[in-house]
Amino acid sequence: MSGSQKASAQQEKDNDGDESGQKIASGNGEAAAEDQSLSKRQRKKLLKQQKWEEERELRKQRRKDRKQQRRLQRQNHHQEEEDRGEAHSVRKRPRREVTSSSLKLVVDCSFDNLMLIKDVRKLHKQIQRCYAENRRSSHPVQFYLTSLGGQLKQSMDDKDKGWVNWKDINIKTEHYSEVVAKEELVYLTSDSPNVLEELDQKKAYIIGGLVDHNHHKGITFERAKELGIDHAQLPLSSFVKMNSRKVLAVNHVFEIILAYLEKGSWREAFFTVLPQRKGAVAVGQDGATAQEREEEDSDSDSDTPEQTEKRT
């Protein structure tokens, strides 16, 4: 390249540099002019937007940290709930020893055709109570339902479909005489002259599944005699005096048997189970209630000296 060409190229380069500088200066000038043209509020908004963009990653990390913290809090809360639930469960259901009894309790459901549907439904509820109490008992018995059918089975199907999954119960459509040996059977009926003193673990005690409001008085006693099986009544009169009749609901008889197996005392069993509306009052060894003894004492205190002398 000749000297004149070199000089020409250098001149062009200088010209380009001048133009670039002019453009930069022009750009800065325009930016400055633009800044000058923005109001104070607009400039503030622009700075805020720039700061927002700059802190984008920081906000993202903060959100991530908060999410992680909430997850840990939920896990800790869930664990605390589980711990409290386990502790409550232990307090509510203390561990107990369960000793199953070989004694059989049979609810005789062969009176279906003698009851109105409202009474059948009451019997259904009483049977539910028997089942629940036997499952909770520390001395559960061998529970039997016999002659199940008719209105009672229909009520159970309609109101309690889960009964088909009941555990620790023998549900039979057959009569109890076809299920248990005759020599084992003892019908519990308040009309029997025999008083049950103790329970025999080898026996099967039958409870009449009948809600009749005294419309069929004595029918269970007659059934027992017809079949030639043993019968007895609970020793209720020996320990309790009641305002109402001695006929008890199916579940009350069932629960009294369970309570006796647990406590070994008829007195405790009766007063644990009998509802207050029955007006149960304890009877002493002389056969009198506490109130009757107080009345006798009061009558004795009111005697005149002459009456006392005559008795002596």
Automatic annotation (TrEMBL):
Record-annotated membrane-spanning stretches: none
Q: Domain SAM-dependent MTase TRM10-type: where?
A: 91-281
Q: Which residues form the active site?
A: D212 (proton acceptor)
Q: Where is the composition biased (Basic residues)?
A: 59-76
**Keywords, in A-Z order:** Methyltransferase, S-adenosyl-L-methionine, Transferase
- Identify the EC number(s): 2.1.1.221
Query: Is RNA-binding included in the keywords of this UniProt record?
Result: no
Q: Which residues does UniProt call coiled coil?
A: none
Q: Which reaction does it catalyse?
A: guanosine(9) in tRNA + S-adenosyl-L-methionine = N(1)-methylguanosine(9) in tRNA + S-adenosyl-L-homocysteine + H(+)
Q: Which GO terms describe its cellular component?
A: cytosol; nucleoplasm
Q: GO molecular-function annotation terms?
A: tRNA (guanosine(9)-N1)-methyltransferase activity; tRNA binding
Q: Where is this region: Disordered?
A: 1-97, 280-312
Compositional bias ranges of the Basic and acidic residues kind: 77-89
* Top-tier EC class: transferase
Feature: compositional bias, Acidic residues = 293-306
Where does the secretion signal sit in this chain?
Answer: none
CDD domains found in the cross-reference section:
Trm10euk_A (cd18101)
Bias (Polar residues) ranges: 1-10
Top-level division of the source organism's lineage: Eukaryota
Any one GO biological process: tRNA N1-guanine methylation
Q: What does this protein do?
A: S-adenosyl-L-methionine-dependent guanine N(1)-methyltransferase that catalyzes the formation of N(1)-methylguanine at position 9 (m1G9) in tRNAs. Probably not able to catalyze formation of N(1)-methyladenine at position 9 (m1A9) in tRNAs.
UniProt protein name: tRNA methyltransferase 10 homolog A
Protein's organism: Sparus aurata (Gilthead sea bream)
Per the UniProt record, the lineage of the source organism begins with: Eukaryota, Metazoa, Chordata, Craniata, Vertebrata
